[in-house]
Structures are given as structure tokens and as C-alpha cells.
Design a protein that fits this description.
The structure is a single chain. With about 200 residues, the protein is of the alpha+beta class. The protein contains five helices and five strands. It is rod-shaped. The termini are far apart.
Length: about 200
């Protein structure tokens, strides 16, 4: 029975989540499997990989063939390296202690690289947030600066209307005064002939 180490898709549309399984090569992609070896979540950055390294090495020793993607994941988690070291121990080139020391050193180096990548991503996120905040502050200041001249224009309009009202009232007052003067002159004119007649 040919065995493959491959990915079995789970999750929802647009958000895939995979199990890493050892399955018969003739079974369906999401069908029966012989053993679940781990999980792979590509939705996070960096991708989250959980793997039973010893179980994967056992299957590799028994002749299981990984698919291309599964091979990349096994290499990322060190299963292929451990399989290589186990082969060296079996041939007598290494002792188990040496193989374990090499594997642990590789794991530490890999963990440092992953941590550095996570730190770089978090720094980039922080810088992007700072830039977005500065842009938002600039936009708010521009909006406030654009809103300040509007009340000044309203004040100018109010002053102009006040001046127009005062001009109208002065014109009305002047008209009333001229009317009053005209009435007084008219009354005086009517009174003068009567006085003249009396004198005669």
C-alpha cells in the first residue's frame, strides 16, 4: 500500500486550514487517513505549523512519500533533517547524542530566525500604524483649518448686513426729518398769509 504524507483541507471558504496526514495514496484528498501528524494554518503571518516530528520521521523511515507542499513543511519543521540524522545513526556515522545535539542546535537557530521575522513584522505594523495616525492627524488639522475661515466669512456677512441696516435706518430717519421739515415749512407758509391779512 503506497503511503503519502499530504495535506487534508479543512476550514471555510477563503480561510483554509490543513491537517498534515499520512494516508493511502488512493484515498480521497479529504477522505480516510492512517495518522494525523500535525496541522498547518497559512492564514497567520508567519504561517502556524504544528507537527509531530517523531511520527513524521517514523513514516518517512517506513517509505512514505511526502507531496511537494508537505515536503516543504517537513523541511521547515526539521523532520527531513531528523530523518537524515537517524539514517546516519543507523549507518554508524553518528552517535545518537551527536545527532540529537545537531538537531537541537538547528531547532534553536530556526526559532531565532522565526522570532526575528515576527519582530520585523510587528515593527512594520507599528510603523504603518504610526504613519496612518500621522496622516489622520494631518487630515483633521486640514479639516479644522478649512472650517475656521467659514465663521470669519459669516462675521463679515453679518457686519455687512448690520451696515446695510444702519444705512437704511439713517435713510429712513433722514426721510422722516425731511418730511417733518417739509410739513413745518408748509404749515409756516399757510400761517404767513393769515398774518399778512391781519396786518392789512
Amino acid at each position: 500500500m503506497p503511503v503519502k504524507i499530504r495535506l487534508q483541507r479543512h476550514g471555510k471558504k477563503g480561510k483554509p486550514y490543513y491537517w498534515i496526514v499520512a494516508a493511502d495514496a488512493r484515498s480521497k484528498r479529504d477522505g480516510k487517513y492512517l495518522e494525523k501528524l500535525g496541522a498547518y494554518n497559512p492564514n497567520t503571518n508567519p504561517a502556524t505549523v504544528e507537527l509531530n516530528v517523531d511520527g513524521a520521521v517514523t513514516w518517512l523511515q517506513n517509505g512514505a512519500q511526502p507531496t511537494d507542499t508537505a515536503k516543504a513543511i517537513l523541511s521547515y519543521k526539521g523532520a527531513l533533517l531528523k530523518n537524515h540524522l537517524v539514517g546516519g545513526v543507523r549507518k554508524g556515522a553518528l552517535t545518537e547524542e551527536q545527532a540529537e545535539a545537531k538537531f537541537n542546535a538547528w531547532l534553536e537557530e530556526k526559532a531565532a530566525k522565526v522570532q526575528a521575522k515576527e519582530a520585523g513584522l510587528s515593527k512594520a505594523d507599528a510603523e504603518a500604524k504610526a504613519k496612518a495616525l500621522e496622516a489622520e492627524k494631518a487630515a483633521n488639522e486640514a479639516r479644522i483649518a478649512a472650517a475656521i475661515p467659514a465663521p470669519v466669512e459669516e462675521e463679515v456677512v453679518a457686519e455687512e448686513t448690520a451696515e446695510a441696516v444702519t444705512e437704511e435706518t439713517t435713510e429712513v430717519v433722514a426721510d422722516e426729518k425731511t418730511e417733518a421739515v417739509a410739513e413745518e415749512t408748509a404749515e409756516a407758509a399757510t400761517e404767513e398769509p393769515a398774518e399778512v391779512k391781519e396786518e392789512e
